[in-house]
Amino acid sequence: MTFKEHTFSRRTAGWCAVALLVGASWVMPSMAQAQARKDSLVLGMILEPTSLDPTMAPAAAIGEVVHYNILEGLTKINVDGSVAALLAESWKMDADGKAFTFKLRKGVKFSDGSDFDASAVKFSFERAKGEKSTNKAKAVFNNISHIATPDAHTVVIVLNNPDGNFLFRLGENTAVILHPGSAANAATKPVGTGPYRLDSWAKGSSISMSKWEGYRDAGAVKIKKVTFRFINDSAAQVAALLAGDIDGMPRFQSPQSLKQFQSDKRFVVEMGSSAGKGIMTINNRKKPFDDVRVRRALSHAVDKKAFIDGVFEGMAKPIGSHMAPTDAGYVELSGLYAYDPEKAKALLKEAGVQTPLNVTLTLPPPPYARKGGEILAAQLAKVGINAKIENVEWAQWLGGAFKGNFDLTVINHVEPLDYMAYANPQYYWGYDSKAFRDLAAKHSEATNAKDRTKLFGDMQRLIATDAVNVFLFNASNSAVYRKGLKGLWSSSPIFANDIAAVSWQ
């Protein structure tokens, strides 16, 4: 260390000491204020949504804010992944698995005071399958043959093909019921049947909601005001929790800081599961990635264990296809492409790829992408692939990579059971496989549980064999929150925050 470096370090240390003393004077009142709050809540989120209409925009962050809070669906997915009644109080499925009859709750209103009835369900689902729909679950709604509304509180949905996951799908944020008269404005002013109404959206900072006193079960809702603050920097998340600026991070993504909170009696740390599939996405449309040998080379070039240890401190599981270990019918394929740089080099040579191969690795803001991208770039360099890192904001990623403008990118697909994206050649990774589409069609039509399980496994194996993407991790869900807060989800079967179930002890 030079003298100047030493002098700077001492000066920095001095300023840090002053900052800590000054900071302590602010932390104490802030913590006291946080403890005094009994009917309000401030939660941290990693990403800011680009819209508040989950039926028209793809970002999972939308569901974290509006799902179950402002907007509701016919069914509800619980924290354990089970399906329960919500706007539908009951349902019946015909023997062929194609027709569902839903009985709707009576006395339900939208937050503008208008009645919720069968016409709103019909409108929402027909809108979701419409020609101009950008619903990311459009394939689910395209499978609907027709919708009947025999009376104001009955909806009959007939499918073209049986769908064993249909009730689960209706509990996802893509199937929420919108107010027919205001659906066009749902991106900024959603009107729903849920327990909260939107107060404000301070772009780049936070979204606030207030309890709607006209909600059908308002007496059971304890939190009167909730604010979601957007904090994508790990250090800033830690600081906000310690200072009492936020009451919790339901999806905390700084594994390195968990021990600090586990040893702090002011906080609770809960570990749960998620439906996430972390992948290094490959643009299958672009050369040389249209050659399966090149995609397999990428898979052999990546050391999944080193990635998981470096990014998650081991708190994630390696995966080998686009399914999470918690999914029924999951097939363990994480060892299909062992870490083997020499094999990767041989495959690149066999495919006629001249090295060094220059590519761009586009990274959105989450820590797993930014930190993980550095690890991946270093591993790819060992086999002759120079990955130039391009850091982008979330809106840029959605407008660029998600539109197919990328070479490689890193993203955690958190939607459960989203394997049907591989049947869509227009999806952003551009996988075009008739073999997969045929398997998916057979799986949809199958009514026998044994046949469905086999076909489900076959789909996973085909995706893995074709090395569509480099399948990396299924991360544990870490929830960190202030002691005394009850009801926050510790697992994430879907990305949602059910605030009506939350209260202060």
From TrEMBL:
Protein name as catalogued: ABC transporter substrate-binding protein
GO cellular component: ATP-binding cassette (ABC) transporter complex; outer membrane-bounded periplasmic space
Domain of life, per lineage: Bacteria
Gene Ontology MF: a single term: peptide transmembrane transporter activity
InterPro entries documented for this protein: Peptide/Ni-bd, SBP_5, SBP_5_CS, SBP_5_dom
Keyword tags: Signal
Domain Solute-binding protein family, chain residue ranges per copy: 85-414
GO biological process: peptide transport
Protein family per UniProt: Belongs to the bacterial solute-binding protein 5 family.
Alphabetized PANTHER family for the sequence: D,D-DIPEPTIDE-BINDING PERIPLASMIC PROTEIN DDPA-RELATED (PTHR30290:SF38), PERIPLASMIC BINDING COMPONENT OF ABC TRANSPORTER (PTHR30290)
Classification of source organism: Bacteria, Pseudomonadati, Pseudomonadota, Betaproteobacteria, Burkholderiales
